[in-house]
């Protein structure tokens, strides 16, 4: 299954479960009887299923909507949710399922609408916040996974847009921002396809990570970087028309233990620290001087559970700042 579709189906399943539980709570609050619980679960299933599907498979892909400010975006989505809720409330599916007379159901229409709208607003707010900070970061904050720092083995991929300094002079401040935004949006699709996690955007760089078990499968970090380059090649004409230049990327990959934890007070964040992050960043600097524009440490490629998807060139041991004995690296072969 396409990873993007699989991701959306996972989120949809979670939303439906929340909707059903919320409907059962309403049914319990009304009478607590079996038919009332069934009616509430029916409403919850339909409302959550339809709103979740519209959000994930329609609204999420509307670029014009995603470019609006947070408040306006939230208002537009809420209006669409409200229209769906009104239609479902008027059709009275819960009463039809349990065989109650339909005409009496309108007496509590507005109270039911208010409750459904409130739950939908919370779900909508959750989607919006997750879109701002990242779905996995959002879930990690909610579950408190990194409230106390932990050590994890991670693949870390640094991807840098080549020549961005010169492009900034040529395109201007606003132009380079639009260029980077368009590029990062395209690159992120490959991250989703290969089940990575965007850790951060830093200037003209994007940092992607995988836990050891996820990244080792089918050499996902290497495949992700190659997919990024293919995506940029496919979009070359569009970039050429809009900006007069096609983005080129360089990258580096490293693996090892990182410390992951929440940090800060007014602006809470989940940060990654450790020598792995520093080494990956320095490898990215060195990648600018090698053919193929990509360096991977031997420590990272040794962890893959399958052979690399394309030939890798053994570049031996390179000197690197902060490591007396240097680091063994490989580069992308000519056939990549």
TrEMBL record:
So where does this one cross the membrane?
Answer: 12-31, 37-58, 70-92, 112-133
- What sequence ranges are listed for the domain Guanylate cyclase? 155-284
User: Which domain of life does this protein belong to?
Assistant: Bacteria
**Keywords annotated in UniProt:** Membrane, Transmembrane, Transmembrane helix
Asked whether the UniProt record includes Glycoprotein among its keywords, one would answer: no
Pfam families to which the protein is assigned, alphabetical? Guanylate_cyc (PF00211)
Q: What is this protein called?
A: Adenylate/guanylate cyclase domain-containing protein
Species name: Bradyrhizobium jicamae
């Amino acid at each position: 299954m396409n990873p993007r579709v699989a991701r959306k189906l996972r989120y949809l399943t979670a939303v439906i479960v929340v909707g059903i539980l919320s409907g059962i709570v309403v049914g319990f609050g009304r009478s607590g009887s079996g038919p009332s619980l069934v009616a509430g679960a029916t409403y919850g299933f339909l409302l959550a299923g339809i709103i979740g599907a519209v959000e994930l498979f329609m609204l999420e892909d509307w670029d014009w909507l995603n470019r609006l400010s947070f408040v306006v975006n939230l208002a537009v989505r809420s209006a669409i949710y409200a229209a769906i809720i009104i239609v479902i409330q008027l059709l009275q599916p819960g009463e039809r399922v349990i065989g109650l007379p339909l005409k009496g159901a309108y007496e509590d229409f507005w109270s039911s609408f208010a409750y459904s709208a409130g739950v939908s607003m919370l779900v909508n707010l959750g989607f919006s916040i997750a879109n701002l900070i990242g779905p996995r970061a959002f879930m990690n904050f909610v579950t408190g996974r990194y409230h106390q720092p932990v050590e994890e083995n991670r693949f870390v991929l640094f991807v840098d847009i080549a020549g961005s300094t010169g492009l900034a002079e040529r395109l201007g401040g606003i132009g380079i921002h639009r260029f980077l935004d368009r590029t990062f949006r395209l690159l992120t699709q490959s991250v989703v396809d290969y089940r990575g996690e965007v850790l951060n955007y830093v200037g003209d760089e994007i940092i992607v990570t995988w836990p050891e078990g996820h990244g080792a499968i089918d050499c996902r970090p290497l495949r992700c970087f190659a997919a990024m380059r293919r995506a940029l090649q496919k979009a070359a004409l569009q970039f050429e028309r809009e900006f007069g230049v096609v983005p080129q990327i360089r990258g580096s990959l490293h693996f090892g233990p990182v410390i992951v934890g929440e940090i800060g007070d007014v602006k809470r964040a989940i940060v990654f620290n450790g020598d792995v992050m520093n080494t990956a960043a320095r490898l990215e600097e060195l990648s600018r001087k090698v053919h193929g524009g990509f360096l991977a440490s031997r420590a990272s490629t040794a962890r893959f559970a399958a052979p690399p998807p394309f030939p890798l060139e053994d570049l031996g041991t390179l000197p690197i700042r902060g490591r007396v004995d240097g680091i063994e690296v490989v580069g992308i072969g000519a056939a990549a």
